[in-house]
Amino acid sequence: xxxxxxxxxxxxxxxxxxxxxxxxxxxxxxxxxxxxxxxxxxxxxxxxxxxxxxxxxxxxxxxxxxxxxxxxxxxxxxxxxxxxxxxxxxxxxxxxxxxxxxxxxxxxxxxxxxxxxxxxxxxxxxxxxxxxxxxxxxxxxx
Amino acid sequence: xxxxxxxxxxxxxxxxxxxxxxxxxxxxxxxxxxxxxxxxxxxxxxxxxxxxxxxxxxxxxxxxxxxxxxxxxxxxxxxxxxxxxxxxxxxxxxxxxxxxxxxxxxxxxxxxxxxxxxxxxxxxxxxxxxxxxxxxxxxxxx
DNA sequence: TATTAATATTTGTATATACAAACAAACTAA
DNA sequence: TTAGTTTGTTTGTATATACAAATATTAATA
Lengths: 142, 142
Prior knowledge:
The structure is a homodimer. The first copy, chain A, is mainly alpha-helical. Chain A has one domain (24-139): Arc Repressor Mutant, subunit A. The first copy, chain A, is built from 6 helices and 2 strands, in the order ααααββαα. Chain A has a two-stranded antiparallel ribbon with strand order 1-2. In chain A, a hairpin with a 2-residue loop joins β1 and β2. The relative contact order of chain A is 0.11. The mean pLDDT of chain A is 93. Chain B binds a DNA duplex through residues 21, 24-25, 37, 39, 54-56, 59, 64-72, 74, 86, 88-91.
């Protein structure tokens, strides 16, 4: 059935979650070739771009909670894609050589994903929607 | 940090998921007084409105997978809010008296939630966004 | 300096959701 | 009628995420 025919199609809880689930699915498909979920991949790209980045910064960038970030990092550590060092209360996350070597492929996945949804939704349409959604996010309480 | 300042703020994966998380949080707050999560509440309202509704219909209405619907129903059954009967391969879900008595309060929660986000986002703005998001959902692959 | 408060991170635990497989029933076609 | 296929639902299992509490460290203040 079409979303627009659901009893709840006017409800932002319903629509935003349904959209997120579909996007997540589409994204994970794009990153499957590197055997990562989208959120792991985004985190990893942040780490490669800014070696030594701290979990708290990642929290801000990804709008996820600290505990979730810890869990994501743990997973990437298991996969030997990042390492962690702790000095006092601060932690730094670094990409491994394996991760650095993976970067071009990660970027291809990212492009593939952008391609995938902008083919479906249209390039301007997607950009406009992303902008509007950001505005909503920033208005909603933390 | 503002979503619009994230490195990934132009990515629909990032924005749609971030919005959904915030909406979910806001919604769950509204339904807390009846001790239900938003998805349980929406399912329950469907069942009250259409007693005997089948899981497959609920799947269509909520755009969730069959297994998720089974799990949500199980939870509501534990809480003595719905009952299930099975005839052949079909299952019917009925509200209990307890659930029916809860209906007005459920509707208040729903109103409270609508109020909450349309106060923040604006009534027209929200309606327009919901419409646009529905369009996106329907374009994306199942 | 000693005590308190704030900050950064991790852990324990709970939750919603999904996928794949299992199962049961109903339909179809030979 | 029987074999095969489709449909509806449930189970087993895995995952991402969050909340609350624990821990450790630094900063502030009295």
